[in-house]
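Per your request, structure below.
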């Protein structure tokens, strides 16, 4: 009896999961490519800015210590 309830609950959950996946609006390859490039470019720019700020801060601390 308990196994039957678990089986029905599992099937219901999977059915609900499939229904939610069908609601998703998937992007096309062109849009996905543009967004991926944008993420990589923004990440690289942020990496450079953080490195620059870190270097300036390090130089400032070394200047103050001397």
């Amino acid at each position: 009896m308990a196994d039957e309830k678990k089986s029905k609950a599992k099937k219901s959950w999977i059915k609900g999961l499939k229904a939610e996946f069908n609601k998703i609006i998937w992007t096309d390859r062109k849009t996905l490519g543009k967004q991926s490039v944008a993420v990589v470019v923004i990440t690289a720019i942020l990496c450079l800015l953080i490195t620059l700020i870190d270097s300036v801060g390090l130089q400032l601390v070394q200047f103050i210590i001397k």
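The mean pLDDT is 91.

Regards,
D.
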